[in-house]
UniProtKB/TrEMBL annotation:
Gene3D superfamilies: B-lactam Antibiotic, Isopenicillin N Synthase, Chain. Keywords: Iron, Metal-binding, Oxidoreductase. Belongs to the iron/ascorbate-dependent oxidoreductase family. This is Fe2OG dioxygenase domain-containing protein. It comes from Gossypium tomentosum (Hawaiian cotton).
Length: 305
């Protein structure tokens, strides 16, 4: 098992970095999807309220993103990850960033990784603001693979722009309904969702040798206001609810909305920032595309009385 697109650690036959408990009980009822469903075409404020309080996570359907775009973005992410590890390290730099072994970064942008907590994941961050006018392409010309890379980077970038606009629309619609439910003061609550903070994070959890498993992403909550996830058909995402880990099954054309720490704070802990994690055990690469959005950086969060 060797492929130059993977970080070297992920090419080892077996790895000792993450031994995880295979017997841990997980609610896995074959045909049953336990995750609450929110239909954006006929959005029920009551259902939304229930999902936000009880789960902190829900499945979004009828969201208006064409399924072709959902698939194209997955395919292009796959292409980008298939560049060699060296090239990814060299060319996916500011305003983009590439790192592996963790999804967390320090304030200065360095990957927050330690040998004990290596996650089985590679990450590319795409800012959405300024992507089109960035000098990134100029800096790429220094590299020999410019010609090869640029023809699909251009494609990825325009897809990201289009996809990002849809995500911003979804976040705005969902957040405004939450604000209504929470009775937020509309003058204050405008700055609690700031589209300019939005970015897209593409994750690849590399295939893993048969019989092994690892954390793609360990247990965490998102620090966002909202996160909106497009996962491929391999699965692996789990959410914690009433002391059980529940599989968030992949269902074509649906998105998973995660409430982050910021909306939990704004709601005065009425809403839950969902605890979740990703387990990797398939012999195929797993790709997910996540949209993250935050409050305006300098605003003060105020919970309703
Ligand atoms: O890849 C996934 O399914 C979820 C990733 C995640 O939780 C994150 O990036 O915060
Ligand atoms: Fe997350």
């Amino acid at each position: 098992m060797n492929n130059e697109s993977y970080p070297p650690l992920f090419n080892q036959q077996s790895h000792q970095t993450q031994i995880i408990d295979i017997d841990e009980p997980i609610q896995d009822l074959e045909d049953l999807d336990l995750i609450p469903i929110i239909d954006l075409q006929c959005l029920s404020l009551d259902k939304l309220e229930e999902a936000c309080k009880d789960w902190g996570l829900f499945r979004l359907v009828n969201h208006g993103i064409p399924s072709k775009l959902m698939t194209q973005i997955q395919d292009q992410a796959k292409n980008l990850f298939s560049l060699s590890f060296e090239h990814k390290q060299a060319i996916l730099s500011s305003p983009l960033s590439y790192f592996w072994g963790t999804t967390a970064r320090t304030i200065s942008g360095a990957a927050l990784r330690s040998p004990k907590t290596i996650s089985w994941v590679e990450v590319i961050n795409f800012p959405l603001v300024g992507l089109s006018e960035s000098r990134f392409e100029d800096s790429l010309k220094m590299y020999k693979i410019y010609g090869l890379f640029i023809h699909f980077y251009g494609r990825v970038r325009s897809l990201m722009d289009e996809y990002g606009r849809h995500q911003a629309r979804l976040a705005r619609t969902i957040y405004e309904s939450m604000a209504k439910n929470l009775g937020l003061d509309s003058r204050l609550s405008k700055s609690y969702l700031s589209e300019s903070t939005g970015f897209i994070r593409v994750n690849r959890c590399p295939r893993i040798p048969k019989g092994n498993q690892a954390w793609g992403v360990g247990v965490h909550t998102d620090s966002t206001l909202l996160s909106i996830l497009n996962q491929d058909q391999l699965g692996g995402l789990e959410v914690f609810k009433e002391n059980k880990w529940i599989l968030v099954k992949p269902i074509a054309d649906s998105l998973i909305v995660n409430l982050g720490d910021m909306i939990q704070t704004i709601s005065n802990d009425l809403y839950t920032s969902a605890k979740h994690r990703v387990k990797v055990k398939k012999q195929e690469d797993r790709i997910t595309i996540n949209y993250f959005v935050f409050p305006q950086f300098d605003c003060t969060l105020q919970s309703p009385k």
